[in-house]
């Protein structure tokens, strides 16, 4: 597809329609009116998901991977792994699984 945009479209809207367009554009997270209108015209919809559960899940994944690396390093150096450390990791992984199921069931509702 040629990325050169040399064609123009012009159309009129009422004041209420323009306010609604701007409101939807802002809520979708798109900052450019041209990008928003092009996206809507080509794809028919814009979807902006703000899931705090995803941020929590990413944070837990980062913590688990950091902890797992530390446990592996300690095990390689001393030959020991503490049961409390593994239990902590298991609890965090269980929380990750629960959050994943929650997100998937929410997305299935679309």
Could you name the key traits of this structure?
110 residues, mainly alpha, 2 domains, 4 helices
Structure summarized in a few sentences:
This is Plasmid mobilization relaxosome protein MobC. 71% of the residues lie in helices and 0% in strands.
Largest sheet data? none
Q: Give the N-terminus to C-terminus distance in angstroms.
A: 31 Å
N-to-C series of helices and strands: HHHH
Q: Regions with pLDDT < 50 over 5+ consecutive residues? A: none
Q: If you compute it from the alpha carbons, what radius of gyration comes out, rounded to the nearest whole angstrom?
A: 24 Å
Number of domains: 2
What is the SS-derived class? mainly alpha
Pfam family, one: NikA-like
Organism: Faecalibacterium faecis
Protein name: Plasmid mobilization relaxosome protein MobC
Describe the protein's architecture and organization.
The protein has two domains: 37 residues, no CATH class; 57 residues. The protein is built from four helices and no strands. The two termini are 31 Å apart.
What is the topology?
Elements: H1 15-28, H2 33-43, H3 52-78, H4 83-108
Helix pairs in contact: 3-4
């Amino acid at each position: 597809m040629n990325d050169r945009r040399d064609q123009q479209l012009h159309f009129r809207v009422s004041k209420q329609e323009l306010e609604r367009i701007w409101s939807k554009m802002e809520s979708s997270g798109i900052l450019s009116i041209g990008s928003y209108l092009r996206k809507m015209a080509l794809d028919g919809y814009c979807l902006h998901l703000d899931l705090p559960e995803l941020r929590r899940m990413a944070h837990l994944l980062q913590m688990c991977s950091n902890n797992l690396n530390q446990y592996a390093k300690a095990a390689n150096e001393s030959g020991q792994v503490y049961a409390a450390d593994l239990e902590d990791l298991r609890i965090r992984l269980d929380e990750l699984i629960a959050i994943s199921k929650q997100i998937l069931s929410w997305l299935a509702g679309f």
